[in-house]
Amino acid sequence: MATKSKPSGLYYEAVGRRKTSVARVRLLPSANGGTFVINDKSVDRYFPTRELHNIAHDALVSTRSEKLFNISAHIHGGGIHSQAEALRHGMARALVKADHEHRKTLKRLGYLTRDSRAKERRKFGLKKARKAPQWAKR
Known about the structure:
Layout lengths: L11 E7 L2 E9 L6 E3 L2 E2 H4 L3 H14 L5 E8 L3 H19 L4 H7 L29
Parallel strand pairs: 3-5
Antiparallel strand pairs: 1-2, 2-5, 3-4
Helix pairs in contact: 2-3
């Protein structure tokens, strides 16, 4: 069984969540910075659309930290959109650990708050969570 190597030196780690997606994010301070790896793939390959790419970068862009960190993330569960939002949540938490001055900006944008909305469970006798079978009077 191979052991996973941890990044050497100081790094900031945080967990972000959305629906059933969980993202473990590590920010490694770097002089040249800019590498962004998710599940051993580049961010451009992992999130193919522009919208998902922007969601993934929102926390960095709003704090002007794009070139300050190398980012490594492991994401599992959920769909690709909720994974992007979980990544944004985790990056925002890690950025606050790196520099507490970012908290005000990220809190105002709502990136530090975990979005707790999830799919409602299906109830017996119904077709979906709330949709009832068609009812006929006669």
